[in-house]
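Worked example 3 (structure in, sequence out).
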């Protein structure tokens, strides 16, 4: 079955196949150009699966979710749950590297209308050149003496960052493309001599509000080309923001169809992972620890019983992994070839950039066997720096055993990324097993 966003939601008897799930992922991504839209899509998916918004007095059994700007947490307290029930938590992040609009963005250099932008996260700058781009995010709106926020998605292509012609940069083939974030990444959206709407008029029209009522904005650029399955046998997913909307979609889909067990399954999607997670909606916030405490309180657990439950719990950080790049094999650990469509990768790092331990690795492999899912093991070269995830941050906050897993992908942090068609569904099956174990 599907919910009103078109996202496939599993039930006990019918689960979508690899391709159907990949197509559903493409729709989810296209409807979610910003973290705020990811959360809106998550709400639609969860409500279609019987979840309801939690209130300050929510307690006891049921399916609930709670939204906080660009983050959302959802959980299931099954009937008959013991007061010291352990938690099985999947975490992912809603944000992706991109270009954010500056507060006073419009300039008019040499007769063009141009926008000032700020890079967000580890952006592959060159990947944003020569693409049809648009704006999305949210605006703060005056409502008399009140304040509200409105989602914005301009949708139609209005922006372009043209690359300098090779005739004017003959050294590019030998010295490479060097881009300055301040001078070279400003998109153009019109000609200064035209009397057309400026950027705030365009945003107001897209949000169906009066321009004068906009008193704040969190707006970012996005690629307008639709996500799609490509390749000779449609074996690849070509899409923006696969890191990490792929994991968000897999976690939500898994939770929507999870069967009741002895533990309490939780999915938490944080914002701001790409810039370090230190924010009110990032993984470093105390929102999740307080929520887990409230769930235990609702079951009548004492502080000691809650602490005991955390000690028996597991956090699963779901974030994409680097597939071995066929053109750059020297950038990868030679004994750990990571392939697309060969199953999710368990991520290891001795310096705790990833959280996998011997114990959590064992849990992972037992769950994969039960789910019938293939797996791989990822580790970085010892002479190259390793990335990280929300895993270390959350496991440190909770004092909880944890592991890091993700679907392999190419072109991570590009405006357009590439993953395997089969892997997202296998990750979903694996997360469903881990949530219900």
């Amino acid at each position: 079955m599907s919910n009103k966003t078109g996202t496939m939601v599993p039930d006990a008897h019918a689960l979508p196949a690899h391709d159907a799930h990949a197509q559903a992922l493409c729709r989810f991504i296209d409807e979610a150009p910003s973290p705020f839209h990811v959360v809106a899509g998550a709400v639609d998916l969860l409500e279609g699966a019987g979840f309801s918004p939690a209130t300050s007095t929510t307690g006891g059994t049921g399916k609930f979710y709670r939204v906080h700007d660009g983050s959302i947490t959802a959980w299931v307290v099954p009937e008959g749950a013991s007061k010291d029930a352990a938690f099985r938590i999947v975490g992912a992040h809603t944000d992706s590297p991109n270009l954010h609009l500056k507060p006073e963005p419009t300039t008019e250099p040499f007769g063009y209308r141009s926008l000032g932008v700020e890079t967000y996260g580890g952006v592959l700058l060159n990947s944003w050149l020569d693409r049809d781009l648009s704006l999305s995010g949210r605006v703060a709106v005056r409502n008399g003496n009140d304040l509200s926020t409105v989602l914005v998605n301009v949708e139609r292509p209005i922006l372009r960052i043209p690359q300098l012609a090779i005739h004017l940069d003959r050294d590019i083939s030998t010295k490479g493309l060097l881009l300055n974030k301040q001078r070279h990444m400003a998109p153009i959206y019109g000609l200064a001599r035209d009397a057309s709407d400026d950027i705030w008029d365009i945003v107001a029209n897209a949000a169906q509000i009066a321009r004068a009522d906009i008193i704040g904005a969190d707006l970012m650029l996005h690629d307008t080309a639709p996500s799609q399955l490509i390749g000779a046998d449609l074996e690849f997913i070509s899409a923006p923001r696969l890191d990490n909307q792929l994991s968000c979609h897999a976690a939500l889909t898994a939770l929507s169809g999870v069967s009741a067990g002895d533990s309490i399954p939780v999915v938490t999607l944080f914002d701001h992972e790409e810039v370090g997670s230190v924010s009110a909606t990032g993984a470093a916030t105390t929102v999740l620890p307080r929520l887990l405490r409230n769930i235990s309180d609702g079951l009548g657990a004492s502080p000691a019983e809650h602490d005991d439950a955390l000690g028996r719990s597991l956090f699963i950080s779901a974030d994409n992994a680097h597939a071995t790049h066929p053109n750059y094999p020297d950038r990868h650990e030679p004994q750990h070839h990571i392939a697309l469509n060969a199953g999710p990768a368990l991520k290891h790092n001795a310096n705790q950039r990833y959280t996998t331990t011997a114990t959590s690795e064992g849990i992972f492999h037992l769950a994969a066997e039960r789910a019938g899912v293939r797996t791989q093991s990822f580790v970085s070269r010892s002479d190259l720096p390793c990335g990280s995830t929300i895993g270390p941050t959350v496991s440190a906050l909770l004092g909880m055993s944890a592991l890091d897993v993700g679907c392999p992908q190419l072109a991570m942090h590009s405006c357009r990324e590439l993953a395997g068609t089969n892997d997202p569904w296998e990750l979903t099956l694996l997360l469903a097993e881990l949530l219900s174990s």
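Notes: The longest strand covers residues 133-143. The CA atoms of residues 164 and 184 lie 9 Å apart.
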